[in-house]
Amino acid sequence: MDQALQHLVNGTVLGGTYALLGIGLTLIFGVMRVVNFTHGELYTFGAYMTYALVSLLQLDFFLSLLLATLLGVALGAAIEVLLLRPLRGADIDSVMLAMIGAALVLQNAAMWAWGGVAKLVPTPFGGTPLVLGPVSVMPLRLFVLGVACALLLGFWLLLERTRAGIAMRATFQDSETASLMGVRVGWVSTATFAIGSGLAAAAGALLGPVFMVSPTMGDLVGLKAFAIVILGGLGNLPGAVIGGFALGYVEEFGGGFVSTEYRDAFGFLLIILVLAIRPQGLVALKERVG
Amino acid sequence: MSGLVGWAFVLAMALLPVVAPDPYMLAVLTSAGIFIIGAISLNLLLGYTGQLSLGHAAFFGLGAYASALASLGFDIGIGFGMRLRLEPQPVYVGFLSAILVAGVFGWLLGRLAFRIRGAYFVIITICFAQVLRMLALNWVELTQGPMALVGIPPFSLWWPGQGVVDLTSKAQTYWLVLGVGVLAFLVVRQIVHSRIGRALVALRENETLARSVGIRATHYLVIATVVSAGIAGAAGSLFAHYVRIVDPDVFLFIYTVTMVIMVITGGKGTLWGPVVGGLIFGLLPDMLRGSARPEAQWIAYGAAMILLVMFLPRGIVPAVAAWLPARRPATQALPTPVREGVG
Is Transmembrane among this UniProt entry's keywords (chain A) (predicted)? Predict the structure, then answer.
């Protein structure tokens, strides 16, 4: 029982960052119909920027997290303007191929710039775990969960309470009608891609110090982000949050009780199962079949 | 390209080891040839069914592992105290089992993945390769995991008057790969020109319309996937016995990307596209080697992919076909892209 509680806590911490990753990816798909293969690379970018700011420039840890996220937003905006804008109107497969190309460039640029050796990011949090009854948590992980939840809440407020959020949701539902109503769809797309990328970079900045920072850290994470949005339905925002936490728990419990080696495979097996049994998905969407 | 030009090209390639027996060039061409076979098989899915299948490395890797394991033999526990044993088999058995295993998995993936389309399909094919990679990494008893399968025997072939001989020289291996490549090309051409090929193109162009005239979508798409997977498995087998070591990295996304970029550079949905694109991207890395870091190669690949999608979305072969004067007006007048660059 105690072990299960511990897994529940760990799964929640993991799920928070997965939800951040998933929500960015699903938002970009919903608004722009773009399957963003650079998502994992933005995650890597966020982690490396944190490393550079903390270790090389000796900046404050919390300030570095913020700056890394903002740099992620800037990189996302640049990708949108330079790559996706010229391809607007191209079919979805062509855009996917271009995004795979961009991901290749970004990943190998990271390899070139930082070398293949994994880096450790120093944090102000101590190494002693907080013990709460039967479970123990590292303070850093608790902080990560707190920030992830704050970002999710902030993002929800942005969508629900601001004019920009309304414009985004309108474009999400029907971009043609939105543009007839005076929404500047071009700018909404840039903002969406930038924010989604910023969330991925934030996830990387948060998890970089927990794990190690390496050029290929985004590979598996990018695929997991896809798993999350498939579980929740592409373009379904609450679905991405649910899918994020679901994947966190599945990995944590599967890794704890079934097999540690196949920990990373559970998410993918889960999607294959979902699609085999319920091809319309856990959260049914019309678009999925046909 | 007319049939005559095609056979002249094959003849020229076949005579190459005699005319210019440079072992380094033959080695480069052999490994390029293996990936060209992979690209030819991927083109059947990417080009003719129009489904962006990004798990092709899965079939390649399955073929490599199946062939290596069959020729090395294995002895594993399968639960309930039972064991599954296989004595080392001749290499041709490995080659055939590679095609069989990859084909069976192609059927499975096809049955599963063609319930969905678009972005979902793409993602599930990627996940498929990823799961297999994790299996290869962790099922150490069968695959040796990250320690890799080593000591894989080279090709052997029955030769009149000499019995079964090992293909050890560069030229012999090169000819074998060329032979399999020609065979793969002919199989794909046969399918494309058959009823199946016409059904696939109809589905690609307008699935709803095609269904409405009675074309069974899943049926034809699964056939295409099985054939494509089988050929990719054959390429994987050639790879295993050529490199003679197989590790879980054969399932990496990067191998799929290599084949995808060959197909789209040459022109997807054209028979010669994968060959043209494959020659370019099979030979380019070796020309760049020494002068550039490996990262530079991948950055170049990525940039090439972006530029192609932006400026040459249909690939080289259709572009060249459009430049050539209308020597065969009947062919060019056909609206379907199937005929372009064919024959």
Answer: yes
Q: For residue range B199-239, what is the model confidence (pLDDT) as tens digits?
A: 888 888 888 888 888 888 888 889 999 999 999 999 999 99
Nearest Cα residue in chain B from A36: B119
Backbone φ, ψ for residue B228 (5° rounding):
-60, -45
Instruction: Name the DSSP class of B245.
Output: E
Of the candidates B61, B68, B117, the one whose C-alpha atom is nearest the C-alpha of residue B91 is B68
Element (H, E) at A207: helix A185-207
Read off the pTM.
0.83
The mean pLDDT of B19-46, rounded to a whole number, is 88
Over the stretch B298-342, which tens digit does the pLDDT of each residue have? 888 888 889 888 888 888 888 888 877 655 544 444 444 444 444
Element (H, E) at B116: none
Q: How far apart are CA A279 and CA B226, in angstroms?
A: 21
Q: Min CA distance, B21 vs chain A (Å)?
A: 36
- In terms of C-beta density within 10 A (0-12 exposed, 13-18 middle, 19 or more buried), how is residue B222 classed? buried
According to DSSP, residue B268 is labeled T
Report whether A48 contacts A110 (CB < 8 A): yes
Q: For residues B8 and A192, what is the distance between their CA atoms, to the nearest angstrom?
A: 54
**Residues A49, B250: Cα–Cα separation, whole Å:** 31
Cβ-Cβ contacts under 8 Å, B204 against chain A: none
Contacts with A96 from chain B: Cβ below 8 Å? 52, 119, 122
Gap between the Cα atoms of A256 and A266, Å rounded: 12
Residue at A212: amino acid letter? M
Integer Cα distance of B40 and A129 in angstroms: 55
Q: Encode pLDDT of B237-275 as tens digits.
A: 999 988 888 988 888 888 888 898 889 888 888 888 899
Residues of chain B that touch chain A, judged by Cβ-Cβ distance less than 8 Å: 52, 112-113, 115-120, 122-124, 126-128, 130-131, 134-135, 137-138, 207-208, 253, 257, 260, 264, 293, 295-296, 298-299, 301-306, 308-310, 313
What's chain B's average pLDDT?
A: 82
Measured distance CA(A82)–CA(B300) in Å, rounded: 17
DSSP helix/strand/coil, B82: coil
- Helix%, strand%, coil% for chain A, nearest 5: 75, 5, 25
Beta strands in B79-181 (DSSP E): 83-86, 149-150, 156-159, 163-166
Q: Which of B95, B13, B20 lies closest to B282, judged by CA?
A: B13
CA distances to A79, A101, A187, B234 from A83, in Å: 5, 11, 14, 37
d(CA A223, CA B123): 8
Residue of B112, B122, B134 lying closest to A96 (CB–CB): B122
